[in-house]
Specification:
alpha/beta, three-stranded antiparallel sheet, 15 helices, globular, binds adenosine-5'-diphosphate, binds magnesium ion
């Protein structure tokens, strides 16, 4: 079987997350002792192990209810999921859910909370639940700016503690892959060391164990382990990511992308100074923006030394013609 490489598989062994698991478990332990606790927002890029570690903790501690907002994407559905109560009005449902929570207190976990259609409405509802029960609420999302989007009142009462899972590096991803491959059938798990290293290095561009698993799965399915094939699969996967990426970027990033589309293409380069002049931001901020877009393989940059007097200059262009056209289209230019 290769089910062990699928997205939903919950591994027995969760690597490189001991510190964060410990921190989150403290909330669970305090809740057991005191019947109440503080709220938590768990952040981290896609594939950084958010769902995995929370599910592992639930399994170990056994006092939480897990709700995936990508499945229950309205407030009504999310609240209904808590006890599966069959009540058709939202108000009554909330009332009965609170009553039941007071009798059977459980930590409430809302995974992928950004997927909910009306965030303010859900957060206000969670605020009501928290005020009446003091039960800890954990929200999980890759979007760090989500707290700013919450209604002020609710945000102040809920007062989320924050934990961010760092992106995995190539070394960590390699360990994760090796440990997972041990569970897979002997016949198909014989990836050579070079392939394991290469897949881990590619996946490290996003720090994502999801990219790691998906790349491996595709190689095994197609029985192709060449670097060229791995790169092609990665590019395809990234294409799906752009849509999410572009939808998630903030105002400054959007303006930066517009500026890029104006100033350069897949052949013509633009210098970071030019971008800085146009955007009226600091050099450090421009460099940060370039790094963000480069991390998503949307652009590539190179440095050039301009001799003793000239210093170093950074040149930027879109990674490929395809990416350029795709982003141009997404931003509504063609
Ligand atoms: N620390 C880890 N150890 C082992 N496997 C991991 C680890 N982190 C993530 N994975 C695996 O990577 C994939 C994506 O992880 P997931 O928890 O779904 O990420 P997220 O929820 O942050 O998007 C899953 O298949 C999961 O089993
Ligand atoms: Mg997840």
């Amino acid at each position: 079987m290769i089910i062990e490489l699928s997205d939903d598989y919950l591994p027995e062994e969760v690597l490189h997350r001991d510190k964060q698991i410990e921190e989150i478990k403290n909330i669970f332990k305090n809740f057991k002792k005191l019947g109440m606790g503080t709220n938590l927002a768990l952040f981290g890029v896609t594939g950084s192990g958010k769902t995995t570690i929370i599910k592992k903790i639930i399994k170990d501690e056994n006092n939480a209810i897990y709700i995936s907002c990508s499945e229950a994407h309205t407030t009504y559905k999310a609240i209904k999921k808590i006890f599966n109560l069959n009540i058709s009005t939202q108000e009554e449902l909330l009332k009965k859910t609170i009553e039941r929570l007071l009798k059977e207190p459980r930590i409430l976990i809302f995974d992928e909370i950004d997927k909910v259609k009306n965030l303010s409405q859900l957060v206000n509802t969670l605020n009501t639940i928290y005020r009446k029960t003091m039960i800890p609420i954990i929200i999980i999302t890759p979007k760090r700016n989500i707290i700013k989007q919450m209604p002020t009142d609710a945000r102040k009462t809920l007062f989320f503690e924050k934990i961010t899972l760092p992106s995995y590096n190539a070394h960590e991803l390699k360990n994760i892959l090796k440990s997972r491959l041990k569970l897979v059938d002997q016949k198909i798990r014989d990836l050579d060391e070079g392939t394991v290293n290469y897949i881990s290095a590619i996946a490290a561009q996003h720090g994502s164990a999801r990219v790691l698993m998906n790349l491996t799965l595709r190689c095994i399915q197609k029985n192709n382990f060449t670097q060229k094939f791995i790169e092609i699969v990665f590019k395809e996967m990234m294409k799906e990511d752009w849509i999410d990426f572009v939808n998630e970027i903030n105002e400054t990033e959007r303006a930066f992308l517009r500026c890029l589309l104006e100033k350069c293409d897949f052949e013509k380069e633009v210098t970071s100074e030019e971008l800085q002049g146009k955007m009226k931001l600091t050099a450090a901020r421009i460099s940060q923006l370039i790094n963000t877009f480069e991390r998503y393989s949307a652009i590539t940059s190179r440095h050039e030394n301009l001799g003793r007097a000239g210093g170093r200059r950074r040149f930027v262009k879109f990674d490929t013609k395809e990416i350029y056209k795709e982003l141009d289209k997404m931003m509504g230019y063609s």
